[in-house]
Design goal:
single chain, 372 residues, alpha+beta, protein yfey like fold, 13 helices, 30% helix, globular, disordered C terminus
């Protein structure tokens, strides 16, 4: 046999050609009169569900749905091995090198279509900076928008769902105290829908081991001050990407049956970081965050008709309301010379992207320098 059913489930990523290949197995069982192997009372399904009581669930199982729920548990592997042996005895041609199943499974996945592509500023048709109304028009009248409150600590979200898909396309996230209106810009998007992929083929449901092949070595981390939300950053995920300068794309991992996808020496510490991870660790969510629009630089003397004397106290130079707001954000002393204030602000701005994100007022995203 050339393909192991356990390996098929292990490397399943929710790609269309993989669904077709697994569905081919199920169709072959039905055609061969062996559909009962997937019934709720079959040995395979009982072992898969870890049930032995006659009162347990008797509903048949879908192999595609089972693949989506596979987490490498011993009972799951044992059930798949049992099913594989049964199929080999009755339908050995299904596993032949030239079988339709093998051909479909080994198809090279197509690049994500625009509607399912994750870039640095968009997930499918949802784009950072567009208004909620613009997204509603793009998705059409059949799309559903359901408010989820609370979505997470300090934040609510609007789940966008399309007909025929029981999983939200993405979540439009916003501060709980500021309901999102149709005219408001989208500044944060999260998806955990496995249909969405980056141009390199990475997205929710993809094993971290697969992402490493594309993005390089991973670093897992979490902070107790950040609700212990775990992140994984790959060494090459943002390299040579001009878009990454303006927008932030982050990956959240998970490993079923474990508290964390990463393997940490001291899980009770306030901050943890590691390069080791569970074998079944996968990408759970992809986050896009739009930093606030930079304040327009002051016009030069030819445009403004006046020059700024940087030796004057900053409180005299920072005469516009937005300038004073900036001063308060950076916690500078406006009685100092403006050139010193500008220098202080410049240092703050150079402290990596987390400080920019912090200005959104969302402390849950700020993981500190250790997470950048």
């Amino acid at each position: 046999m050339s393909i192991s059913l356990v390996d098929v489930f292990k490397y399943y990523e929710g790609l269309p050609h993989q669904d077709s290949a697994i569905q081919h197995i199920e169709d072959a069982l039905e055609t061969g009169g062996m559909k009962h192997w997937l019934s709720g009372t079959s040995d395979f399904v009982k072992l898969w569900r870890n049930s032995s009581s006659p009162d347990d669930e008797t509903e048949s199982i879908s192999l595609v749905n089972a693949a989506k729920l596979y987490r490498g548990l011993p009972r799951q592997d044992a059930a798949l091995l049992q099913l594989q042996q049964s199929i080999e005895a009755e339908l050995p041609e299904l596993w032949d090198e030239t079988s339709d199943f093998a051909r479909i499974w080994r198809q090279k996945p197509l690049s994500p279509q625009p509607d399912w592509l994750i870039t640095f500023d968009s997930i499918g048709l949802a784009r950072l900076g567009m208004t909620l109304e613009e997204l509603k028009l793009a998705l059409g009248t059949d799309a559903q928008f359901q408010v989820q409150s609370p979505f997470m600590v300090g934040f609510d979200a609007i789940a966008a769902t399309l007909p025929g898909d029981n999983k939200a396309q993405y979540y439009i996230v916003y501060p709980s105290e500021t309901p999102l209106e149709d005219s408001d810009e989208i500044t944060m998007l999260i998806t955990e829908n496995p249909k969405f992929r980056t141009a390199e083929g990475i997205g929710p449901g993809v094993l971290v081991s697969k992402a490493i092949e594309v993005y390089g070595a991973p670093t897992f981390s979490y902070s107790a001050e950040n609700e212990s939300r775990e992140w994984v950053k790959f060494v090459e995920q943002d390299q040579n990407k001009a878009e990454a300068v303006d927008n932030r794309r982050k990956f959240r991992p998970q490993a079923l049956c474990y508290d964390f996808a990463g393997i940490y020496l001291n899980p009770t510490a306030d901050f943890n970081e590691t390069n080791e991870f569970q074998e079944n660790a996968c990408i759970w969510q992809v986050w896009l965050i739009k930093p606030p629009t930079d304040v327009e630089a002051p016009k030069d003397s030819e445009e403004s008709g006046s020059e700024v004397d940087v030796t004057e106290p900053a409180e005299e130079v920072l005469s516009q309301p937005e300038d004073n707001v900036i001063a308060s954000i950076f916690e500078v002393d406006v009685t100092e010379p403006a050139e010193e204030v500008l220098s202080q602000a410049e240092e703050v701005l150079s402290q990596a992207e987390d400080d920019v994100i912090a200005s959104l007022g969302e402390e849950i995203f700020q993981t500190g320098e250790e997470d950048s």
